[in-house]
Amino acid sequence: MADAKQAETLQLLQDVLKKAKAAGATDADAVLSDTASVSVTRRNGEPESLVRSEEAEIGLRVLVGGKQAIVSSSDRSPEALQQMAERAVAMARMVPEDKYAGLADASEIAKSFPDLDLYDASDLSVEKMSEMADTAENAALDVEGVTNSDGAECGVSKETSYYAATNGFVGGYSASGFSMSVSVIAGEDAHMETDYDFDSTAYLKDLADPASIGRSAGERAVKALNPRKGPTKTMPIIFDRRTAGGVIGSLAGAISGSAVARGTTFLKDSMGKQIFPANISVIDDPFLKRGARSHPFDGEGVAPQKRSIIDNGVLTGWLLDTSSAKQLGLKTTGNAARSASSPPSPRAANFYMQPGEKTVEELIKDIDEGFFVTQLMGSGANPVTGDYSRGARGFWIEKGQITYPVAEMTIAGNIMQMWLDLEAANDLIFKYGVDTPTLRIAKMTVAGA
Fold first, then answer.
1. Rounded distance, CA 443 to CA 283, Å?
2. Closest CA to 412 of 282, 249, 230, 232
3. What pLDDT, in 10s, does the model give residues 408-422?
4. What angle do CA 114, 118, 119 make, to 5 degrees?
5. Which of 77, 137, 428, 434 has the highest CB neighbour number within 10 Å of its CB?
């Protein structure tokens, strides 16, 4: 690669692989993530914290026949790398055989790397980050009704991920991140509410204005003041964009190849079946420009794919790495994720639901009584049964209008029925890595007073 540091690091990984082969490995792969980050937290105009970190951990996976072992280290010295290779091979020889362990086939590895525009060389001084955090916090505190701050944070990160394997793959790519968040308190004494807002982007120029983030956080906190408890009944639910991602996040977990292979997902028998309305499609896209989870190759060096996981309501495929694909008698879909200390496992890329045609207001206008959810507590759908129950707060809907805030509510249903009953608004934005527009579910059980 053109960059001297990347070329040097990739050569180091290839040297580790040679040492592993010399020590007796049948095959091997190695990863290294080189990360530097800085974050500044301010509270009430004063410094709260300043955190700098630099990490570079090497992970080596070796295979001796059908046995595998993984070791990791932050020591790049030749002596340490030699010991790593020898220790990994010795460990592999002592573990049980795994007939599904192995590297990706050479025919599946990425041969070219698309430019996904993931790296912004821009930097921010600590002074500038402090200024941005103060701007966001001050804008939030200026909102009438906001009484205190939980702090504002500005962060910058730069990361380069490297991967090399004895199947011939070698590659690396860089990504940057810029973030801003603020959390504030509205009200006083026993009548206080907290809310937040944030933004996170690959490029500094794409980051939302700090003052707008602060105002949004303040306004959200004030709107939540003096909540009531709604009644217990069955009614339509609206998930705002912040909470709606969990609805398809449950889908990403349920179609993970490892869960399918173990039979521990409620979707194990749903391939080719309609599980969403016919006008709904869900995309897994590793090539989204400046995307939160974009990558030119996966954690096994495999060329990834943009796929319609849900195509006109029908489930079309699983998220597979090499191991889970072998277990299912299929081919990897290029969805492997990998850390230095763990083997590859399936993971979605930029996972999103395509938007519908109605505005949020149009989704709400015919609801006589309903619940507009803005915050959720607890876990999502049970991965085995699909049963869904979470604590929630937000706003009551009456006669097509958002009215008063509600809190201490529980919403419940089954995620498969929720999917069949959903309708999507037209307000999709890419922000979280798992993204949906605002969603309406025709009916769920709401428990309150």
1. 25
2. 232
3. 999 999 999 999 999
4. 120
5. 137
Quickly count: other Cβ atoms within 10 Å of residue 445's Cβ: 15
User: Both tokens of residue 399?
Assistant: 């006669």
Label residue 449 by pLDDT band (50, 70, 90): low
Report all structural domains of the chain as residue ranges with CATH numbers, in order of start.
Answer: 4-220 (3.30.2290.10), 227-449 (no CATH)
List, for residues 16-66, the tens digit of each pLDDT value.
999 999 999 999 999 999 999 999 999 999 999 999 999 999 999 999 999
Distance of CA 267 to the CA centre of its chain: 21
Report yes or no: 207 and 201 within 8 Å, Cβ to Cβ.
yes
* Burial class of residue 8, CB neighbours in 10 A (0-12, 13-18, 19+): exposed
DSSP letter for each residue of 279-307: T--EEEETT-TT-TT--SS-TTSB----E
277: which DSSP letter? -
Instruction: Tell me the C-alpha distance between 40 and 208, whole Å.
Output: 17
Q: In 3D, which of 153, 137, 180, 128 has the Cα closest to residue 40? A: 153
Nearest to 56 by CA among 114, 6, 17, 110: 6
Query: What 3-state DSSP class applies to 323?
Result: helix
Task: Give alpha helix (H) positions in 175-255.
Answer: 210-223, 241-254
Between CA 418 and CA 422 the distance in angstroms is 6
What's the DSSP call for residue 266?
A: T
- In contact, 405 and 377? CB cutoff 8 Å: no
Q: Residues 339, 59: contact at Cβ < 8 Å?
A: yes
Here the tokens at position 383 are 């991965």
pTM of the entire structure?
Answer: 0.94
